Amino acid sequence: MRFKQLWSTGPTGTIVLGLRYGAKPIELAKGKSGIECSSMDELIAALEAIKDAVAAGELDAQIDAASGSLRAGFAKKK
To answer: Residue 77 — pLDDT band, cuts 50, 70, 90?
Structure first.
């Protein structure tokens, strides 16, 4: 099984972590779907914080919104 890399390097050399549900980005704040980290240690801390937030149900609304828009793409057109 192959996994896509969740982060990339931004134009200023920082690490940008993007969360997705399928092909749809998860919007963490209004107009923001990524987390900027200055180092790999900060990236690991951000991933652990996201894991804890998901376990606590804090991202349920964002995941439901991304899920709904993804499902809408598969709806039958009349």
So the answer is: low
The three-state secondary structure class of 22 is coil
Question: Could you tell me if 22 and 63 are in contact, meaning their C-beta atoms sit under 8 angstroms apart?
Answer: no
Mean pLDDT, the chain, whole residue set: 84
**Residues 6+ positions from 7 with CB-CB distance below 8 Å:** 15, 16, 17, 18, 37, 43
- Give the count of beta carbons closer than 10 Å to the beta carbon of residue 19: 20
pLDDT at res. 70: 72
Q: How many other CB atoms are found less than 10 A from the CB of residue 11?
A: 6
pTM of whole model > 0.85?
no
| Contact call for residues 18 and 36 (beta carbons, < 8 A) | no
